[in-house]
Fold these 3 entries.
Entry 1:
Amino acid sequence: MSRHVLVPFDESNGSEHALEHALEQHPDATITLLHVVDLMEAGYSTPVDGTLPGFWEDWFESEKAQAEELFEGARARASEAGVEVETETVVGRPTRAINDYAEEHDVDHVVMGSHGRSGVSRVLLGSVAEGVVRRAPVPVTVVR
């Protein structure tokens, strides 16, 4: 039985399903929800004023606030299941950040959602789940 389960968490249906799976299958484990803020994604959508002093600090605070809103709903669902979850927000590329967190925080198992991409979109966009599965230091369950 896993003692520490990591659930990468964003606004996708896949991460919601992963949370439900973790709550059902690992009710006695420490469950950590991890939200990754991807600076690369932010860079592509940076407005012209993105070079002004303070922009990135304000942007990051906004991202953390959005993550906290996501976590609030997840905490409520976990509470209904009688489980308390921990939450963490980190900055980085999702695949690397998830695997690094798992390695650095004694995670025993990763439970994550699949976005269900296939064909060309999967080739062009890549797959975080696939990257985590390939490089994870621990077992990974991918939930659809």
Entry 2:
Amino acid sequence: MPATYGQRVGGFLIDIGIPGGLLAVVLIAALATRDLVVIGVVYPVAILVGLAFVVWNCGYRQGRSGQSLGKSVLGTRLVGAGSGEPVGVPRALGRQAAHLLDAIPLGLGYLWPLWDEHRQTFADKICSTLVVQADL
């Protein structure tokens, strides 16, 4: 059974919102020092940490198990449309990159699951993936 739109949005907010919020606090704290050396070190490190988190959570974790941290909390899984199995790391990372296409037409791709029969975003359609209810 496809995941609800609320589950998808909730999972996204956990996957992006929590680590993004933490990174924002670190970056603001670095700016507050007004020390160019601190800022010059903290900003690139924060970008690398954020990128590593996305690769681990949305690529490795989701690709191998079907669940990012957000999907685990909300009880959903990412699976191949044909197989119903986790999609693997390369395809999970490709799906993350394809989400850029969801944003291009005024974010329409992110809203597409509201009326799509399989509740897929453009990225899901391109990568032949589904976000479904996890078997509990």
Entry 3:
Amino acid sequence: MSRALPKPLAAAAVAVLLGGASALAGAAPAGAATPAHAPAVTVNFAGTVALDDCSGSVVRLPNSQSGDPALVLTNGHCLESGMPDPGQVIVNQPSSRSFTLLDASGNGIGTLTASKVVYSTMTNTDVTLYQLPNSYADIQQQYGISPLTISPDHPVAGSSIEVVSGYWQATYSCSIDGFVYELHEGDWVWKDSVRYTPTCNTIGGTSGSPVIDTSTGLLVAVNNTGNENGETCTVDNPCEVDQNGNVTVHQGTNYAEETYLLDACFDPGNQLDLNLPNCTLPQPQ
């Protein structure tokens, strides 16, 4: 969970974001690389958002309609009320969280405000979905911004991806190195996590960034953590655990959580229904 910022640094960085977004727009951190081959789509910052200490994006499900209430995706550990405990699932919790909406160049063009937390957990995955009072059509009309579309399919190893941080207005280009049976960090366990190749060396503040497959333009995961100093299974130092319980540590490697599972848990109108037959997200206890 090292991809979120400590609060003092977060406050300073947001001041930079709101006061001089254009200075950082499109700037990639050292080590961010271009893909080995030209992507089929051009990835930019349109639809991404900056939170007070994390990144996120305005998202739609494959069957979402323009009049549906818009959703904002970030990490479970970016929840404003604090990180959910292992096993904890939060649904339909009132929220007035605000997000700075970015345009294609990474400039802040407006503020969106949540009406509720639709779903949040750090069990099996690391995700928070907010609902806005605005529809996708409202956002399009006011800001000219369309949402990112969540892929309904499992991501594919070897795919070229871009991690797009609205917080830093920075992108990271790499590929999906593979998938982790279980990723353990502190008391939390995430399943079937995405492992990046080395050039996606994400930093604090990139938590919640959308991970975009550059061949399709679809959102396939949400950036969430990395092993900072080689410790084993501690906070900020996740470890990989295979089906046989073998533990490996990859210092400097960063990870994301898949998002295709979300599609099976929503009815028309962006209405969460964890009882749908193909929904496998954890339910509240």
